[in-house]
Write a structure and sequence with these properties.
The complex is a heterodimer of chains A (515) and B (338). With 515 residues, chain A is an alpha+beta fold. Chain A is built from 16 helices and 18 strands. The chains are: A alpha+beta (515), B mainly alpha (338).
Chain lengths: 515, 338
């Protein structure tokens, strides 16, 4: 049996190749008011009040509106709410004045009744057997009631002071949902065909694969310039790189550092590595060698953060001295922890640690959760070894981390990324350092004494000052070893006018195509 | 024939019950013994210990493991696999939505794998004793030694990025929409009369199906070649030659039919493995199938979803085994007589 390669078969093959090439149009072949984004994750559900997941916020912000929002520099901005103020000196009544021109995608008006439904009725609704409580039920537990005073005015009444209430109105899960529509179609019907008041309506959704958004022409802020946005959920970072490189995406998000740099050097593409408000820290537990304050402080002084940033993040990961991002209210300006191996050795000597008897610790790290995490942990372990701290580096999965954290069984050191899109200090130290928080690793009464008053401090200036002191105190005592601010990597076609946000949001409503 | 086939299906159904119970118990217990907290990643940052307990109670995790298992089994008997802790949706709905994608992908992978394997096997056999055999032999060894996920990446780099010949993200072009009817996009696009969408779906299927098929093809090639060599020493081949039949006719009409039996068994076994291979291939190609769903479930330690998908995998393997038995029965007259 032989295959004869004739001119006819050659023509046939080239025809087939041409047909194949015509199948599967690249991103640039779309209309010029449409883009494709290669994004690493999907929404867990289209009910925006159900889950707090940072990676889902950009999606929700396309389809839904929160009462407030943030500018690219993180400062709060009016959104559905055009004004807000505490009515009383005790900060127990928060008045929200909604704009009158916002409508849901079905044409119905957004009213104070929808606001009450979202922040009072839904969070308190009884959970059906086998069902799950909405995350807004946990977040807004201090809401006693929301009263409606007019179609555009609602008042949130709190059982006790909630200084972060205004922040939560632009943080996770706080999106206003349509009461009438949910009552008509039910919660499952709403999650299957969601409508919000955001700049895009959901045109198509394939779970785990694709989100297609179409511009909502009647959005109160005006219709977005990009009329159709297709978000392909591409979990694999190499595939996201391939997508932008092959022209099958106009924007690819969360790429490996080196690939972002490489793509940025290619004609027609832009690669960006931007610092964001998330922070990378070493969570400390006072066990083993880290029971000694000197050892914890030595561990901090032994880390050359600038060298690590240069080696693994192209120098774009900004070193931090407290567990907060630079420029946020909880970041003290006049505080610095020096990289000083000599001081680290001196501190260790004070703790009885010597070259012959090094401090032995266990060091947990994630691998692949954020760019170069394992490599950074390896570098830190090597730096520690130079001063006399021998770290047993172990990779752990996030569910295991949660289990050990909950049981108070974390080892001496754990490298972890903490997300905070708001920059609010409570979302940093308020949760990370409060011994009562389920997310704090270092459970210490002296921290509790300092955090507790801040969680009910309603004066913004005193609150910010208190958090700056708290963050500084925690680092001075070695309760936390902050490393860097997080980074956001993107690559996009030069024709796209991309707008970066300091919290990493990807918001196509702010983008346009040039030319 | 019908009685024998019914007997096979009946025996398989009877055996399936204890197998499913054992597998479900294993998965259930192992997941609960792993030191991992399924709640931690599903709570807001201002949650308290009391909130943790509330959630634990809602999910029934505060009960003894045997009691949890019995409750879960009771729900399964009613067709309820529980609610996903990550997606906050019914597990049955999530799996039902994802399964057609995986079935379509595996079917395409099987078809490609079988086509390549049969062609390669015949080439190898025909070229025995010549350079062709050595080349195809080495080629099959090389293909076999590369796992599916590496093929997936190679194919993207070569045909997707390098030649820009084929798409490699998702199941359909960005500017196309196919209304879901069956979940099988090849079918749905035809039902909707969209031929361009059908072509797009087929093009999107090619690379992931090829990545899966390349794991199967060399095995088929090698088994088919060996079976054919064994078959060609049988008397009926000599008799066929004496009857003056052409070599092509002997191969395709007589030898291949008999040599196909071991190949069919192999395809059955490998089809089960192919479902395992979809885990990474679906992630790489952004296919929203149960492999992708399983990866997401494991990442979020979503116990109800992991358990549900594990059960579905088990059922799929049992079904495949039954189908292979039936295929064997159809191909082998001796079995039918027994």
């Amino acid at each position: 049996m032989t295959v004869e390669f004739t001119r006819r078969s050659a023509l046939g093959l080239s025809g087939a190749a041409a047909a194949l090439a015509g199948l599967g149009l690249p991103a640039w072949a779309q209309a010029r008011d449409a883009i494709t984004i290669a994004f690493p994750n999907d929404v867990p559900t289209w009910d925006p009040n159900a889950r707090v997941l940072q990676g889902a916020q950009s999606f929700y912000k396309c389809v839904f509106d929160s009462p407030l929002t943030q500018a690219p520099d993180l400062s709060p901005l009016p959104n559905l709410a055009k004004a807000w103020r505490y009515r009383d000196t005790a900060s127990l009544e928060l008045e929200i004045e909604l704009r009158g021109d916002a409508t849901f995608h079905d044409g119905s008006k957004v009213t104070a009744e929808d606001f009450r439904f979202t922040f009072d009725e839904r969070p308190k609704a009884p959970v059906a057997a086998g069902g799950r409580k909405l995350d807004t039920g946990f977040i807004w537990r201090k809401v006693k009631a929301v009263t409606v005073e007019s179609p555009t005015r609602a008042v949130m009444q709190f059982t006790e002071v909630m200084p972060s209430a205004v922040t939560w109105l632009y943080f996770m899960a706080s999106f206003v949902v349509p009461k009438a529509y949910i009552e008509k179609v039910g919660v499952d019907g709403f999650a299957a065909k969601p409508i919000g008041s955001g700049p895009y309506r959901l045109a198509e959704y394939q779970q785990g694969a694709r989100v297609v958004l179409e511009a909502f022409d009647r959005h109160w802020a005006g219709a977005p310039k990009l009329k159709r946005v297709t978000i392909e959920i591409v979990q694999d970072p190499s595939a996201r790189v391939a997508a932008i490189e092959a022209g099958r995406a106009d924007l690819a998000v969360d790429l490996p550092i080196r690939e972002t740099q490489r793509l940025g050097g290619r004609p027609g593409l832009v690669g960006r590595i931007d610092p964001i408000a998330d922070i990378l820290i070493i969570e400390v537990n006072h066990v083993g060698a880290f029971e000694r304050e000197e050892v914890r402080l030595a561990a901090h002084h032994a880390i050359d953060k600038r060298a690590i940033s240069k080696a693994f993040y192209a120098g774009k990961a900004i070193p931090i001295d407290v567990p907060a991002a630079h420029g946020t209210p909880g970041y003290p300006k006049e505080f610095h922890v020096a990289y000083d191996p000599a001081q680290a050795k001196a501190l260790l000597a004070k703790a009885g640690v010597s070259a012959g008897a090094p401090a032995q610790i266990t060091f947990f790290t994630t691998k692949g959760v954020f760019p170069n995490d394992f490599e950074v942990a390896q570098a830190i372990a090597a730096m520690w070894k130079k001063v006399g701290i021998v770290a047993d580096l172990q990779v752990m999965e996030l569910p295991k981390y949660q289990e050990l954290l909950r049981a108070g069984k974390l080892p001496e050191a754990t490298m972890y990324q903490w997300g905070n899109t708001t920059g609010d200090p409570e979302m940093y130290g308020g949760y990370l350092l409060d011994p009562k928080s389920i997310f704090s690793s270092y459970k210490s009464p002296d921290l509790g004494e300092r955090v507790a008053p801040l969680l009910v401090e309603s004066d913004p200036a005193r609150r910010a000052e208190g958090y700056r002191e708290l963050h500084r105190y925690a680092v001075e005592k070695g309760y936390s070893i902050p490393l860097f601010q997080g980074i956001k990597t993107v690559a996009y076609q030069k024709a796209l006018a991309y707008k970066p946000y300091a919290n990493g949001w990807i918001l196509p409503q702010d983008y346009a195509l040039k030319g | 024939m019908t009685d024998t086939a019914l007997g096979i299906v009946g025996r398989r159904l009877l055996a399936a019950v204890p197998i499913l119970i054992v597998v479900s118990a294993l998965v259930f217990v192992v997941l609960r013994l792993i030191p991992a907290d399924p709640l931690g990643m599903s709570l807001p940052p201002n949650a308290t210990e009391a909130d943790v307990e509330t959630m634990r109670h809602e999910m029934g995790l505060d009960r003894p493991i045997p009691e949890q298992y019995v409750i879960w089994l009771g729900h399964i008997a009613r067709g309820d696999l529980g609610i996903s802790s990550h997606f906050r949706q019914r597990v049955t709905g999530l799996i039902a939505a994802a399964l057609p994608t995986t079935l379509e992908l595996v079917a395409s992978g099987l078809i490609l794998g079988i086509l390549l394997g049969l062609t390669g096997g015949l080439l190898m056999f025909e070229g025995r004793g010549r350079v062709t055999e050595q080349v195809t032999d080495i080629g099959s060894l090389v293909v076999m030694s590369i796992p599916e996920f590496l093929w997936a990446i190679f194919l993207i780099l070569a045909l997707g990025v390098g030649l820009r010949l084929l798409p490699f993200i998702g199941r359909l072009d960005a500017d196309m929409t196919v209304p879901p009817v069956t979940g099988f996009l090849l079918v749905d696009s035809l039902v909707d009369g969209q031929l361009n969408a059908f072509a797009s779906v087929a093009a999107h299927l090619l690379l992931p199906a090829l990545a899966l098929g390349l794991a199967l093809a060399p095995l088929i090639m090698r088994v088919l070649r060996s079976s054919l060599i064994d078959t060609y020493v049988e008397d009926y081949i000599t008799l066929a030659r004496l009857r003056g039949l052409s070599e092509r006719r002997i191969l395709l009409r007589h030898a291949l039919k008999n040599a196909a039996l071991p190949t069919a068994s192999l395809i059955g076994v490998q089809a089960g493995f192919m479902f395992g291979g979809t885990l990474l291939v679906e992630v790489i190609y952004t296919f929203p199938g149960i492999g992708n769903l399983m990866v997401e479930a494991v990442r979020n330690h979503d116990l109800p979803l992991i358990q549900g998908i594990a059960l579905v995998y088990c059922v799929i393997v049992l079904v495949i085994n039954t189908v292979v038995d039936l295929a064997y029965l159809a191909l082998n007259p001796k079995l039918r007589r027994q």
